[in-house]
Amino acid sequence: MAELPSWDDLLEGRGCPLCHPRADFSEFTYLVRKLAVSTLYLNREQTRPGACILIYDVRHIVRLDELTSAEWLTFANDLGRAEEAVYRAMKPDHMNVESLGNQVPHLHWHIVPRYRGEERWRAPIWTTRLEEMPNQRLTDGEYAALASRIDAELE
Ligand SMILES: [Zn+2]
């Protein structure tokens, strides 16, 4: 991963890699669909098939408490739609939905299908040190097929 700005700069949104506008396709993300106030991407890293990230688009914000109630309701609706689409497309055994922001403090959700028999089944996926995290990449055709499968469930 490229060197990130300091934590204090990231908190203020200086050099924030998740601020809008951002590329539809990057080293880390593959566009599925823009929703009301956020954008759904496949993670390029696909150890758990269908793993996605949902990034808040409206402004740089770090925590949920910075949203008004109306903003949170709209974002929560995006999150609910995204989680349901990933679940319906992938039919995993369980779903993890997590907002951490420990690397990049810009409000986003990790939507992670979990599968019986996978490494770390019934445990969090985040206890591994960053440099030891898996990095399972797909071909462009495989990303396109997966994004379209999840997008089809967003109706
Ligand atoms: Zn940001």
Tell me the Rg in angstroms.
15 Å
The bound ligands are: zinc ion
Strand order of the largest sheet: 1-2-3-5-4
Estimated share of beta-strand residues: 15-25%
Q: What features would you describe in this structure?
A:
The protein is of the alpha+beta class. The protein has three helices and five strands; from the N terminus they run H-E-E-E-H-E-E-H. The protein binds zinc ion. Residues 13, 16, 18-19, 60, 106 line the site of zinc ion. Zinc ion is lined by residues 13, 16, 18-19, 60, 106.
Brief summary of the model shown:
The protein is of the alpha+beta class.
Q: Main attributes?
A:
globular; binds zinc ion; 25% helix; 19% strand; 5 strands; 155 residues; alpha+beta; 3 helices
Task: Please give the structural blueprint.
Layout: H1 7-11, E1 29-34, E2 38-43, E3 52-56, H2 69-90, E4 94-98, E5 108-114, H3 140-151
Antiparallel strand pairs: 1-2, 2-3, 3-5, 4-5
The structure holds zinc ion.
